[in-house]
Amino acid sequence: MAISQPIWCSRCWGSASRRWAQLILPLSLFLGLLMTLGKLYTESEITVMHACGLSKAVLIKAAMILALFTGAVAAVNVMWAGPWSSRHQDEVLAEAKANPGMAALAQGQFQQASDGNAVMFIESVNGNRFHDVFLAQLRPKGNARPSVVVADSGELSQQKDGSQVVTLNKGTRFEGTAMLRDFRITDFNNYQAIIGHQAVSADPDDTEQMDMRTLWKTHTDRARAELHWRFTLVATVFIMALMVVPLSVVNPRQGRVLSMLPAMLLYLVSSCCKRRLSRTAAKAKWTRLSGCGRLTCSILRWRCC
């Protein structure tokens, strides 16, 4: 069916927010823990905790509890909401391109059909209604002759089968050719034309639209890379929570800002390298999961040592 512009924009925005969530969820957890633990270190709260017998394992457990909730949201996003949103976005875009409906009508402009056989001008558009219509069919198909239709108003309605009906009210149709001087002039109160509906379907080979079961059963390089990348996005939440505990150690003499700078730089370098690996995973010999895992584990081992 035809899709209005507000609905189309909201659906595309929903798909964009899904992509942003893949990056924001690990980052929000990382920054939240980094700032909280950094403040506790600055005010010597953690020093007092250690003096009372609480080890660093308590901080790790607290970070893992928060990572568990954040990881659950990330898992729902990348394993269910992400593929559904990507598939729905492609269907909306394909539907809008194949069956534009009112979205393709611009007021105050001459518009040419995609095949170049017709030209339309509409003075004003209000919802599914329009006023002062001019339609010229210069090269009609078959034995039909060129025609010009002018009407005071019109509307576009939707049928149950998806086809659209254009109804023009109170107008005149001029049919004929200037060379033969054979014209047929018809005045009408209602002039209807049916616009067929073109069925659209999603790409079955698009790995971003596949659910987890389909990805698991598909043994292509792109499917394997996409499957590993989804697991990596969920694992990143827990890895970031582990990284932030040693990275949040603050020297009270240096201040929080200076102490947080290495952690932020390390996070940015890690994220950029992961995005780089994700783009070349299908062509490389090692998968996204192994590449990103090696990178993050090496950074974590370097910081903890």
TrEMBL record:
Cellular localization per UniProt: Cell inner membrane
Recorded superkingdom: Bacteria
Entry keyword Transmembrane: yes
Primary location recorded for the protein, binned into one broad class: membrane
Alphabetized InterPro entries for the sequence: LptF, LptG/LptF_permease
Cellular component per GO, a single term: ATP-binding cassette (ABC) transporter complex
TM region positions: 20-38, 58-80, 227-249, 255-273
Pfam family, one: LptF_LptG
Membrane topology designation: Multi-pass membrane protein
Alphabetic keyword roster: Cell inner membrane, Cell membrane, Membrane, Transmembrane, Transmembrane helix, Transport
Keyword DNA-binding on entry: no
Gene Ontology biological process terms from the UniProt entry: lipopolysaccharide transport; transmembrane transport
Chain's role: Part of the ABC transporter complex LptBFG involved in the translocation of lipopolysaccharide (LPS) from the inner membrane to the outer membrane.
Summary of subunit composition and partner proteins: Component of the lipopolysaccharide transport and assembly complex. The LptBFG transporter is composed of two ATP-binding proteins (LptB) and two transmembrane proteins (LptF and LptG).
The family this protein is said to belong to: Belongs to the LptF/LptG family.
Name used for this protein in its record: Lipopolysaccharide export system permease protein LptF
Taxonomic path: Bacteria, Pseudomonadati, Pseudomonadota, Gammaproteobacteria, Enterobacterales
Gene (UniProt): lptF
